[in-house]
C-alpha cells in the first residue's frame, strides 16, 4: 500500500499505532520512496528498543513525537474550558456535550 503512494509523498500518522506497518514504513523511507514520514504513535507504547520506528529516527526523513503532539497550549485550554462548561451545566442539572 505504501508503494501505491506517489514517490516523494509524506505520510503522517496521528491516529493509532499499527495502522501503518512499521517495517514497511521503514523500508519505504530507506528506499526513499516516501519523501518523509511523521508519527505521533507507535505500535507499542512506549516503543521498545528494537522498534522499527526508533530505527527510522537515524534518518533525516522521519519524526516521532510522544503521542501528545495534540497538546498545544490552545488545545489544553479548550479542554479545560469544556470541562468547566460541563461541570457548570451538571450543577444546573443540565446535560452538555454528553456522549451516550
SSE order and pairing:
Elements: E1 10-13, H1 22-30, E2 36-39, H2 52-56, E3 62-64, H3 73-91
Parallel strand pairs: 1-2, 2-3
Summarize the structure.
Helix content is 33%, strand content 11%. It is an alpha/beta fold and 100 residues long.
Low-confidence stretches: none
How do the strands line up in the largest sheet? 1-2-3
Q: Give the percentage of residues in beta strands.
A: 5-15%
Count of strand segments = 3
* Helix share, percent: 25-40%
Radius of gyration: 19 Å
User: Which structural class matches the secondary elements?
Assistant: alpha/beta
End-to-end C-alpha gap: 36 Å
Look at the structure and give the mean pLDDT.
86
Q: Main sheet, how many strands, which sense, barrel?
A: 3 strands, parallel
Tell me, what's the shape? Answer: elongated
Report the total helices: 3
SSE pattern, N- to C-terminal? EHEHEH
Q: In words, what does this structure look like?
A:
It is a single chain. The chain has 100 residues and is α/β, with parallel strands linked by helices. It is built from three helices and three strands. It has helices at residues 22-30, 52-56, 73-91, and strands at 10-13, 36-39, 62-64. β2, α2 (52-56) and β3 (62-64) form a beta-alpha-beta unit. The model has no long low-confidence stretch (mean pLDDT 86).
Amino acid at each position: 500500500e505504501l508503494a501505491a503512494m506517489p514517490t516523494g509523498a509524506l505520510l503522517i500518522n496521528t491516529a493509532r499505532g499499527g495502522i501503518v506497518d512499521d517495517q514497511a514504513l521503514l523500508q519505504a523511507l530507506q528506499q526513499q520512496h516516501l519523501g518523509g514520514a511523521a508519527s505521533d504513535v507507535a505500535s507499542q507504547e512506549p516503543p521498545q528498543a528494537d522498534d522499527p520506528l526508533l530505527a527510522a529516527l537515524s534518518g533525516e526523513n522521519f519524526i516521532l513525537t510522544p503521542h501528545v503532539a495534540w497538546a498545544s497550549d490552545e488545545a489544553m485550554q479548550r479542554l479545560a474550558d469544556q470541562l468547566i462548561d460541563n461541570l457548570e451545566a451538571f450543577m444546573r442539572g443540565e446535560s452538555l456535550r454528553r456522549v451516550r
